Amino acid sequence: MLSYLALLTHTDQLAFFRLFGYLTFRAIAAVVTALVIAFWINPLLIRWLKVKQGKGQPIRKEGPQRHILEKAGTPTMGGILILIPWILSTLLWASLTNRYVWIVLLVTLAFGLLGFLDDYYKVSKRTADGLSGRARLLIEFAVAGVATFLVMQLESPDLSGMLAVPFLKTALLPFGFFFILVGACTIAGAANAVNFTDGLDGLAIVPVMIAAAAFILIVYLVGNEKFAAYLQLPYVFGSGELAVFLAALVGAGLGFLWYNAPPAMIFMGDTGSLSLGGALGAVAVVAKHEVVLFIVGGLFVLETVSVIVQVISFKLTGKRVFRMAPIHHHYEQLGWNESTIVIRFWIVAVMLALLGLATLKIR
Is 39 exposed, middle or buried (0-12, 13-18, 19+ CB in 10 A)? Predict the structure, then answer.
């Protein structure tokens, strides 16, 4: 919205407003704005959620036993603390004529609403099990499929329905109409992968911010014709504006982390994890970097794979590969301190993000 102020440059006195036309300035402003809004409203929201939820998020009895003692009474739905600053900052600083911005906002809000309903069901019914898993997946894939279809309509004909392959020069695999399934799997898969990771204080939000920061650079380069040509990346006109959206995510994430750091005053819940993961997946689809997302967000992939392996192993052999899944609970059962697990997983997330960014140059 404020990007329109860049038009007010017809006199020297108004030359300052030229800054509002620069993507880098608006991205930095989006971080600061989201952070300020978060620090302003988050304490109020936490108090309100505590009053409304009473006993807080129900803790799974089959999970680590210390969680029942240490985390009982902590309110959930903390994703609201992320979504409000994130969306407000995006609306303030992003160009609202950019259709990609509206598509990723649609995905974010839809997945956030689905997560909110899931959290509400858990709190109101006092159960650790939320909505039906099949129904939730159906809705996720429906929203993700529609978003992918809309993205394909905006892409140039030479990119529509194509899957970019990292490490190879301008390698594109044609999927045609079936790319909708690829995009839907990317968006829904990212949402559920972040959801699996959200199990310890601060564990999910920092890797999400790391992945978002990596994709700020990616969308900026992909959305710039000269940089994209130099690096031999697919040029996606208009995708650079998503840097503002991701920058706002980083600012809102920092504001949330202030209250989610161990010991957490609030949990993000499905409201946060689904919206965050869905947003990252949608951005990756727009930027034609779906495969790179699985590298940058490799920590989320690792958490998801640990759950899949555990389930398959138990059903086929009756034995568990890990002491508990997702894998961060496995390390808890081994006696690792929660802060040790969280910080080491953050380090892994940084290393994987750097590896993902390396694909931009290694061709």
Answer: middle
pLDDT band at 244, cuts 50/70/90? Answer: very high
- pTM of the predicted model as reported, rounded to 2 decimal places: 0.92
10 Å CB burial of residue 40 (0-12, 13-18, 19+) is exposed
Q: What is the rounded CA–CA span in Å between residue 293 and residue 190?
A: 9
Residue that wins the pLDDT comparison between 56 and 43: 43
Q: What 3 state SS string does the chain have?
A: CHHHHHHCCCCHHHHHHHHHHCHHHHHHHHHHHHHHHHHHHHHHHHHHHHHHHCCCCCCCCCCCHHHHHHCCCCCCCCHHHHHHHHHHHHHHHCCCCCHHHHHHHHHHHHHHHHHHHHHHHHHHHCCCCCCCHHHHHHHHHHHHHHHHHHHHHHCCCCCCCEEECCCCCCCEEECHHHHHHHHHHHHHHHHHHHHHHCCCCCCCHHHHHHHHHHHHHHHHHHCCHHHHHHHCCCCCCCHHHHHHHHHHHHHHHHHHHHHHCCCCCCCCHHHHHHHHHHHHHHHHHHCCCHHHHHHHCHHHHHHHHHHHHHHHHHHHHCCCCCCCCCHHHHHHHCCCCHHHHHHHHHHHHHHHHHHHHHCCCCC
Lowest mean pLDDT among 8-12, 47-51, 211-215, 316-320: 8-12
